[in-house]
Specification:
The complex is a heterodimer of chains A (about 300) and B (about 300). With about 300 residues, chain A is mostly helical. Chain A contains 14 helices and no strands. Classes of the chains: A mainly alpha (about 300), B mainly alpha (about 300). Chains A and B meet through helix 1, helix 6, helix 7, helix 11 and helix 12 of A and helix 6, helix 10 and helix 12 of B.
Chain lengths: ~300, ~300
């Protein structure tokens, strides 16, 4: 088990290294481009040269990469070109906001999709199964921006129940969180439901479930004691990997509702060529994604006795 | 996608490839959900092909701004069934022409991702060893990016154009396809007909493309349908975020982004393209579900 964890963490570190090299090459390969982004379109060649000189851009590429990576690890993420303040100062509050959004989305999505998935996989082909399956196909087919538009039209403009933007201008307001969470929930729960259903349906065809049914155990007990424990291993991984999807989803939802979160910051930085913010946000996003994948792998191994005791 | 391997169809038993394809689509009749999906997809394909005949107006022509649905356009004496946008362009015509944009770029991007992903997967699964290690590592690295982050960086660094969108989608989707193909190949490479071809002295490329790939087609067709849906969503998202095809191209995502600021007073500007894109994605997802159901049955 320890060897496995060590190996997974090693792979994670290597992935981060590879991603950082790719990112660095994509964004900072040509110093001239960097200077244009930092100093603006209208800077003269002399100004650019001077800036490049001062910031060590005439060093060889590998040296620049290592000093960039070194600064990064020690917490110096550079300055935002747009806001003229350290990147960390902008990014951390934004990350916190997104964490709140993600937390509430998962807080609703996990129980709902697990229950629906189990109900649907319990009796494959039943009316309940068909209704749940169809619902989850329909909801995953509606992109986040479309459900944002549909829900806004109904709940915000027509019934006037909820605010249409979530800028949190007058301080934190939980009511403004409802729409973004709802949109993320609707798009995401279908996938986890389907995966839980597949896992549950799989378990229901195994011999030990048949044995349990044939020896006359009450159906309730078969499901709760025998099926659930095994059926919920696969959804655990799916839910962990869903965090990676959520990182994409928050970009759309935060943009749609003007929520001041991490995804909106990344998008804003990309549209404004705010170089160091793009780099920092991407590394954080990849870090979160890779960490959850690693945790999913380790957790899966831990939960599955067939692998654990090998 | 653990259930994919179970849908591998047995090695072929006579009849041309074309006839067999027709036959498997004929089976779709048994799945009402699949039929609804096929209908939705065919509807939009029909709209895209006959866009010049179906669209009542030029999608770029400026008629009268902010017309509500059903307004009669005085000059041409036509009804603007879905109204016009803020510049006065007919929304129905823009949705009809926009179906062309999405139905050209989404299949193109999916196809290109499939070519790369299938080749990678065949190489990794058939040769194993170093090929497998290196290709799987590359796939892991690309898949560790949250998809949209990858798109935003690629598009904002290299610019928004049709070809860049296709390249970005290929780059992001090929590793996922590779994993599926690799899994299927690992299962198929020990079959007798593969051994027979190897004994005949066929080249590795021949064995991969002629013996293995056709037998892996079932799960891949289902995956392609689901993936097409995702690619359509992706293209829509990019348009919505302002990273899509540059205006004035009629593009569903872009239309939603443009109409968003006026959604409170003129909801028709955003709702109609949202219905269009959702119905097309739903079509592909239902079709995939129907095909999966039918292929599992026999």
């Amino acid at each position: 088990m320890l060897v496995l964890i060590g190996k997974r963490i090693g792979i994670m570190a290597l992935t981060m290294l590879a991603v950082s090299i790719l990112l660095f090459l994509a964004l900072e390969f040509s110093p001239g481009n960097v200077a244009t982004k930092v100093l603006g379109q209208f800077a003269s060649e002399e100004q650019k040269d001077l800036w490049l000189q001062q910031n060590g851009y005439f060093e060889p590429l590998w040296y620049r990469y290592f000093s960039w990576a070194g600064n990064f690890i020690s917490g110096d993420l550079g300055m935002s070109l747009r806001y003229r303040i350290p990147v960390a100062d902008i990014m951390l509050p934004r990350l916190w906001n997104t964490a709140i959004l993600g937390f509430w989305t998962f807080a609703f999505m996990i129980p709902v999709s697990l229950i629906l998935g189990v109900l649907s996989g319990m009796r494959e082909g039943s009316t309940m199964d068909r209704i749940i399956s169809l619902t989850s196909i329909v909801t995953t087919s509606i992109p986040e921006f479309a459900s944002a538009v549909f829900l806004s039209a109904i709940l915000v403009f027509w019934l006037k129940l909820l605010p249409g933007t979530s800028g949190m201008i007058g301080g934190f307001d939980p009511v403004q969180l409802i729409m973004p969470v709802l949109v993320l929930f609707i798009y995401d729960f279908g996938y986890v439901t389907r995966m839980t259903r597949a896992s549950m349906a799989d378990v229901m065809t195994t011999h030990y479930i048949r044995t349990a049914v044939l020896k006359g155990l009450p159906y309730r007990q078969v499901i709760l004691k025998h099926a659930l424990r095994n059926a919920l291993i696969a959804p655990f991984t799916v839910i962990m990997l869903q965090i990676n999807w959520l990182l994409s989803g928050v970009i759309v939802v935060e943009f749609a509702f003007a929520y001041k979160g991490f995804g909106a910051l990344l998008l804003e930085a990309a549209l404004n060529q705010d170089l160091y913010v793009i780099e920092a946000c991407t590394m954080v996003a990849v870090f979160v994604a890779v960490t959850t994948q690693t945790l999913a792998d380790i957790g899966y191994t831990y939960l599955n006795p067939r692998i654990r005791f090998q | 996608m653990a259930d994919l391997t179970s849908t591998i169809t047995p090695a072929f038993s006579g009849g041309s490839a074309f006839m067999r394809a027709i036959k498997s689509f004929a089976l779709l009749r048994e799945s009402p959900i699949g039929m609804v999906g096929a209908f939705l997809v065919l509807f939009w394909v029909f709209v895209a092909i006959f866009a010049p005949l179906l669209a009542p107006h030029d999608p770029l022509a400026i008629l009268q701004p902010f017309a509500k649905p059903g307004t009669v356009h005085a000059k041409s004496a036509t009804t603007l069934w879905l109204g016009t946008d803020n510049l006065g362009r007919d929304i129905l015509s823009r949705i009809i022409w926009g179906s062309r944009t999405v139905l050209i770029y989404a299949p193109l991007a999916t196809l290109s991702a499939y070519v790369v992903g299938v080749l990678m997967g065949l190489a990794a699964g058939y040769h194993r060893g170093w090929w497998d290690t290196i290709l799987s590592r590359i796939a892991d690295i690309i898949l560790s990016f949250p998809v949209l982050v990858l798109f935003i960086i690629v598009i904002s660094t290299f610019g928004a154009s049709g070809i860049n969108i296709v390249i970005a989608i290929t780059f992001a989707s090929a590793p996922g396809i590779m994993r599926i193909v690799r899994g299927l190949v690992l299962d198929l490479r020990n079959r007798d007909y593969v051994a027979a071809a190897q004994t005949r002295g066929e080249s590795a490329l021949y064995v991969m493309l002629v013996e293995i790939l056709p037998n892996a087609r079932g799960p891949l067709i289902v995956d392609a349908c689901v993936r097409l849906g995702y690619v359509i969503i992706t293209i829509g998202v990019l348009g919505f975020l302002g990273l899509g095809l540059p205006p004035p191209n009629p593009d569903w995502g872009g239309m939603i982004n443009e109409g968003r600021k006026m959604a409170m007073i003129f909801p028709h500007m955003t709702i109609m393209p949202c219905i269009a894109i959702s119905s097309l994605v739903l079509g592909f997802n239902l079709l995939a579900d129907g095909l999966r159901e039918v292929s599992l049955r026999d």
